[in-house]
Amino acid sequence: MSDRKTDATNSTDKPTPTRSGSSRRDFLRKGAATVAGTSLAAAIAPRTYAVGDDTIRIGLIGTGGRGSGAVQQAMSTSGPVKFVAAADAFKDRLDFSLRNIGRNKTIAPNIDIPEDSKYTGPLGWQKIMERDDINLVILTTPPGLRPMMFEAAVKAGKHVFMEKPVGTDAPGIRRLLAANEIAKQKNLKVGVGLQRHHQKNYVDNVKRLKDGAIGKFVNFRVYWNGGGVWTRPRASLANILGRNPTEMEYQARNWYYFNWLCGDHICEQHIHNLDIANWCMGTHPVKAQGQGGREVRTSNENGHIFDHHMVEYTYADGTKMLSQCRHIRGCWNQVSEFVEGTKGTSRISNSVELYDGTKLENTKGGKNPYQQEHDDLFEAIRKDKPFNEAEYGAHSTFTSILGRMATYSGKEVHWDEALQWGKKLVPETDGLGFDKTPPIVPNDDGSYPVAVPGKYDPLIDKKDRKNLRSTATGYEKV
């Protein structure tokens, strides 16, 4: 299974999102304590390098297009780096990826992956976590699996680069935040693929916006409107496998269309734009309401995610963010972020215009941000500089999940309640085998159940909550 399509960033001007209320602080404290009671808290001392030298040895988990790109960018950083192991649910994907990566003559001499270091199957990634010679893992599988993999990497004492989003449900985000408290104790460096935080024009313009260039923020408008992505029909998968795929195999190959794996496209892609508003605000929204549905992309091959979402988010100080994302071809496309303030407006990627007609000089791009985010992470590892992007990655991910909850339900959804009581979508590892039944299964006609606004409830029913308590990984009976 592998992840990512497009876009994102980080700088010395990183956001430090505030936590909304005492319940949020209490959860992080209790969640970390819950995990600390397990073996995850063992071996707090950091492991910066393996086998006594300064070579950073990489294990790649998820060898799709983004994983293949990320490992090449990691290997193009300064200092000695070796790519020593790879894991993917599917052998054909893993072999295809390694052949392509090996054609990069610049990094090929630093690839050393014998057959016994190629791990396949739904749980092959666990073998990478068990290897003491690997000190950094790249997590680029479908995002629903990210929290459990991040938790395992932290337990194993490994530095992490993980793609966005960093989860698809509330229990997953709680799990990741709790594991990150241990990562901080272990001094592990954590990068998240929101690469606009490393993109010079964004870094520079966000800084001047936060310094007051347009006054107090009033309203954000953020967009990811495009035509959509790939599908992998059952017939083509049968040709690859030499047999009909199981339902779990089919969903794993088409992970983008199942919200337990992808989170819907509001999470997988639109997170980038939502993250920019959070970065400017230095915090996350406290509630959301919106609407969405399936207007065009309605075939069985499109799983059960929506093809459009429109969300109004509200921050604690009353600032609004209006959010659009759409996967419909032939329509107006836009991938960008704008903000209106009390003194002027900005296209956040580069421009500022004041209401008196003054235009500030546009900010300029710099190095490829996909490369820069790895340069910054690896420099932090080598120089032992503070570097942990997991918390704001989790906050921007849950901003996306909150929006999905709002559009699926048609209701106003509040951050604290949603984080504590959002339903668990992702099974544990014992439910991930290709012979297992996935969390959602097709109807008799091959279609999948789709959320109906007004009927769908993304939260655990209130009458059931009195018998439950939320934990770092899910819910348990009181």
Can you put this structure into words, describing what you see?
The structure is a single chain. By secondary structure, the chain is of the alpha/beta class. It has a domain at 22-197 and 371-388: NAD(P)-binding Rossmann-like Domain (Rossmann fold, 3-Layer(aba) Sandwich), CATH 3.40.50. The chain is 33% helix and 18% strand. It contains 15 helices and 17 strands. It has helices spanning 22-36, 65-75, 91-102, 125-129, 146-155, 170-185, 200-210, 234-241, 247-253, 265-268, 271-281, 369-383, 390-409, 415-421, 462-465, and strands at 56-61, 81-88, 118-120, 136-139, 159-162, 190-192, 217-226, 287-293, 308-314, 320-327, 334-341, 344-347, 351-354, 359-360, 413-414, 468-470, 475-477. The strands form three sheets. Strands 14-13-12-11-7-10-9-8-15 form a nine-stranded mixed sheet. A six-stranded parallel sheet has the order 3-2-1-4-5-6, sandwiched between helices. Helix 6 packs across helix 14. The longest helix has 20 residues, at 390-409. The chain is globular. Mean pLDDT is 91; it is low at 1-52.
What's the mean pLDDT score? 91
Secondary structure tally, helices: 15
The CATH homologous superfamily of the domain at 22-197 and 371-388 is named: NAD(P)-binding Rossmann-like Domain
What is the terminal-to-terminal distance? 36 Å
Q: What sort of overall outline do the alpha carbons produce when their principal axes are compared?
A: globular
CATH class of the domain at 22-197 and 371-388: Alpha Beta
The total strand number stands at 17
Can you name the CATH architecture of the domain at 22-197 and 371-388?
Answer: 3-Layer(aba) Sandwich
Largest sheet: 9 strands, mixed
Radius of gyration using CA atoms only: 22 Å
How are the strands ordered across the major sheet? 14-13-12-11-7-10-9-8-15
